[in-house]
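The following record pairs a protein chain with its ligand, zinc ion.
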Amino acid sequence: MVRQDDVLRLIEEQFQEWPVLQERYSALERIRVKEISLGAAYVKVQFNPERVLSSSARTDCASLEQRPCFLCDTNRPKEQRGLPWGRDYQILVNPYPIFPCHLTIPSITHVPQKIHSRFADMLELAALLPAFVVFYNGPECGASAPDHFHFQAGNRGILPVEQEWKGFEKEILCLSSGAWVGITFCCSRSLWLMQSADELELTRLFGLLYDLLPCGRNVSEPRMNLLVWYDQPWWTVCLFPRVKHRPSFYGTSEGELLVSPGAVDMGGLVITPLERDFERISSNDIRNMYKEVSMDSFWVERMLHELKKSIWKQNV
Ligand SMILES: [Zn+2]
């Protein structure tokens, strides 16, 4: 059985075996980070030039078919070793880090990014790695390989939302079992929060939310980003319902910003691969980005209404 210590050992060994990897993680220690207040919350902005490929990745079907998939075993760097875990996963060290310890956990087979039947795996992964936040970027929500299923994980204590969520004003539905689900709107983001010590119940709650999320045209599942972390015996889940892949001002021209928000950015760590963007991005830009890509309060309130009915019916 894989334990967190095995994963930490893998990271150390990969640094020794793979010089480029160590260079990239050393460079991460020197990159610039600044904090921007949004009033009720704050975000960190990270200038990370190595993430330019991810932020500018073309994720349309034609582009995906033309490129070799970087998560498939046969196309990965020869130095990259993985730890087999769970039903069909490998735990890998991410060669383009955002976190001091950054993992990618792909399926061993080339199957699409679809969370529905894998949410319970995400909870198990978070319990296996309590020093990490496990995250999931849905297709058109920050995943640069939407054709190959993968989770990611990064160190706890870095994403602002991990500390701030308790202070957000929220409407909460408490369940008799001690679990709860709630909705909050913070700085133009809508965010579903869930907590439970019961894996099955949390999976069922996620299923209820999943079924209520509208699924846009040409996407294989409702748009979302997920963050999960584990403080024994409690899991905390953040679900950011999304309506859009990238903001209207996404780009590299004058007046545009190269920001492609995924779970990390929604959690308050905004990645800018271009230094010019890092210098000029403002609190308004970040609010506008959140507003454009997040589900608006009208739809979320409708979801809440339906969720109350479902919970009452199922008597969860
Ligand atoms: Zn693949």
